[in-house]
């Protein structure tokens, strides 16, 4: 068959995924599967009509025939902020594949701090049988969620199942079912003092960078809990560390930070009321095959659309940043 599209798969793909791609699209596509992103050759990049995965800027510059880039991530800021990203290339992401795994991380982390599990773990290492005053529940809490896209909606739904009152911040006025209220960003300052839980799910854009500064953190309840699973640029590390060290806020759960990896000199490492994880709340290709299946479902659906000349889904607005 002539005029087959050259599809370069840089993302991790198990044997069964490769077989599915070949069975479904082998007559229309010529696939190149990279064992690792670094193993991709310049010739493969030059031939690619479409790439599934995350090429770096140098690799992207060599992809001179590229028409479409399908990410296996939800966040696209690496590419929307890339000065050399080609205008001819349609950028799509995998938003919608990570809601479940990240929402469960959020719930688990909140409950862990509410019930003092990190302290009990430390006590266990010391063979110390000691109770602590840690019996908070999610039930009845006011949860303010920054971002009401797929991730924010999924987290809101899980929190509602525990009996929380969910308030969302988003640009559009429509109120998804998982939320009790939706407000525009301009009302953030008036909502912060009511929040028991503040959860950041926002993409990394110039508009969201530094949104939670020292002044806004101080507007929150003294016993509020902050969670950030969106982008670390949402808040300044120094501001948060200062507020926490001063005794304001119950604590913080951070899967993302302003600088990653978090520098060893950061004061956040030594704060007892901070739970830090290295950007692992929603991995694309770890052990969770459910998340992988959702990612590949999005990729394959878009590949069908691409080959049919139909509009792609999950298109990233590069001006908006998501």
UniProtKB/TrEMBL annotation:
The keyword Metal-binding does not apply. One of its GO terms (molecular function) is NAD binding. InterPro entries: D-isomer_DH_NAD-bd, NAD(P)-bd_dom_sf. Residues 108-281 form the D-isomer specific 2-hydroxyacid dehydrogenase NAD-binding domain. Pfam families: 2-Hacid_dh_C (PF02826). Keywords: NAD, Oxidoreductase. Gene3D superfamilies: NAD(P)-binding Rossmann-like Domain. It comes from the Bacteria. This is D-2-hydroxyacid dehydrogenase. It comes from Yeguia hominis. The lineage of its organism: Bacteria, Bacillati, Bacillota, Clostridia, Eubacteriales.
């Amino acid at each position: 068959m002539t005029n087959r599209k050259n599809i370069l798969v840089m993302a991790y793909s198990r044997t069964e995924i490769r077989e599915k791609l070949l069975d479904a699209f082998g007559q229309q596509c010529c696939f190149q599967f990279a064992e690792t992103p670094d193993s991709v050759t310049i010739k493969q990049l030059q031939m690619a009509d479409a790439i599934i995965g995350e090429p770096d800027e140098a690799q992207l510059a060599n992809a001179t025939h590229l028409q479409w880039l399908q990410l296996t991530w939800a966040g696209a800021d690496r590419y929307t902020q890339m000065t050399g990203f080609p205008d001819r290339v349609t950028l799509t992401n995998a938003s919608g594949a990570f809601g479940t795994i990240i929402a469960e991380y959020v719930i688990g982390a909140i409950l862990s701090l509410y019930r003092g599990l990190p302290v009990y773990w430390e006590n266990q290492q010391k063979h110390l049988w000691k109770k602590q005053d840690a019996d908070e529940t999610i039930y009845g809490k006011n949860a303010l969620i920054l971002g009401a896209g797929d991730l924010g909606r999924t987290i809101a739904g899980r929190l509602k199942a525990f009996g929380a009152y969910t308030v969302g911040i988003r640009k559009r006025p429509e109120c998804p079912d998982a939320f009790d209220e939706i407000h525009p960003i301009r009302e953030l300052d008036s909502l912060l003092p009511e929040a028991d839980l503040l959860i950041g799910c926002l993409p990394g854009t110039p508009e969201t960078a530094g949104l939670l500064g020292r002044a806004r953190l101080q507007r929150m309840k003294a016993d509020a809990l902050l969670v950030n699973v969106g982008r670390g640029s949402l808040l300044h590390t120094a501001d948060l560390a200062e507020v926490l060290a001063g005794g304001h806020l119950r604590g913080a759960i951070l899967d993302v930070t302003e600088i990653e990896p978090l520098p060893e000199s950061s004061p956040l490492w030594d704060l007892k009321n901070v739970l830090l994880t290295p950007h692992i709340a929603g991995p694309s290709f770890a052990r969770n095959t459910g998340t992988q299946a959702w990612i590949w479902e999005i990729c394959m659906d878009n590949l069908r659309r691409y080959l049919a000349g139909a509009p792609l889904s999950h298109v990233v607005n590069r001006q908006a940043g998501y």
